Amino acid sequence: MTTTNQYPDLLSEVRAFRGKYPEIRYVDLICLDIPGHFYGKRYPIEMVEKVAAGSPLKVPQNCVLLGTQGGLYPIGDYCFADGDPDAPRRLVPGTLVPVRWEKEPLGQMLITSDGTDAPIEFEPREVLAQVIKRLEKRGIHPVVAFELEFYLFDRKLKEGLPQFPRDPLCEDEDDQPNMHIERLSRFSSVLHEMVVAANEQGVAANVITAELGPGQFEINFGHCDDGLKAADWAALFCRSTRGVAMKHGHRASFMSKPYLNAPGSGMHVHVSLYDRDGNNLLAADDQRPLRHAVAGCLDLLPHCMPIFAANHNAFRRYGAMVNAASRASWGFEDRDACIRIPESDGRNLRIEHRLAGADANPYLVLAAILSGMEHGLDAAREPIAPLNDDRESGIDFPKDMLTAVTAMRSHPVVNEGLGSEFVMVYCENKRQEFLDFMNEVSAREYRWYM
């Protein structure tokens, strides 16, 4: 399988970009790793054109396995026993765009191993691609929309800790958490450029909301009938949002729980399922498939927690006072539930999966949700009572990483749905990263125990 045969318009895309942006000399070729960070290489634009024409593009396979701090862990035969081989990548059509937050003119383009002669089983985008291909063979077509909450901080840290962002006009701290529209006005310059930057990347970003936390905001995306593209949007949005924030003198973070006394940041994912004729599958038979899909998501949720809560901090978000569930639950128009069913007509009936932290990997979150829905449709079981009928309804899920990876590693449906090689690699990556994170004596330990 070659790039030129599969995407005959790719070369035209690169040449058109060069013609439109002659000042851009370099392009970042980027791909998401397991923790949800971009890695890649900065290529001269003329070399990108050669790749589009068919020249090979290779990046070390184990870049996908990088930990949060960039290190590698011994995982099976990977990393330290395989000679660190290169693996083929391809350019993702339609993703070559200019970058507005860098000082020098720059472009960026997504790359992936999906669709190459040797796709990497544990690459997050490949994991999602396989789930979507499996659903499409069954005549099931997801329509997806992400919503991402994030915090703005002052650009400078104080003794290593984040500080509230300051109003650019009056220098006041944004220390009064509320949803007042005036907060959007005070930070309009950075927020509006975030939307513009996202739109320039092809991301259908639109509605801006001031959230409850100090410096916390949410920007929504339009619905997308291509699940891979929807996850691409979420990943690219995080990159551009951080860049634009720094340009304006702020830091933007998708950290799940930056303040213990303020709401966490979530990744809310809306998913509908349609057949080949455009009929909403969830709405059929008095919404029975909807209930089955909910039951499947709830069944797999406790076994996918390392995906939804991707690090130690993310587990702090659960059980908070505002809209953060402590048990797997569902409900109609209920934001305390992990799975909310928004009010809608039959055409737009969907689930809103609200459990994942904003710093989770969007490819893997969507892959886990779709696998849960597929599992539910196959099992055809009714879910537990919704919170609307029973406020105590729910299923326990792990609240720490070590318990969570154990629950995920051995679950047969998760292994089948996401791929056993991926599950092994992912769980071991998260297990070792957690142990690495905990392997430090903090100042608080000395204060408490010395």
Automatic annotation (TrEMBL):
Family annotation (SMART domains): Gln-synt_C
Pfam families for this protein: Gln-synt_C
Keyword terms: Ligase, Magnesium
Domain GS catalytic per the UniProt entry, residue ranges: 124-450
InterPro entries per record: Gln_synth/guanido_kin_cat_dom (IPR014746), Gln_synth_cat_dom (IPR008146), Gln_synth_gly_rich_site (IPR027303)
Necessary cofactors: Mg(2+)
Similarity comment: family membership: Belongs to the glutamine synthetase family.
Protein name: Glutamine synthetase family protein
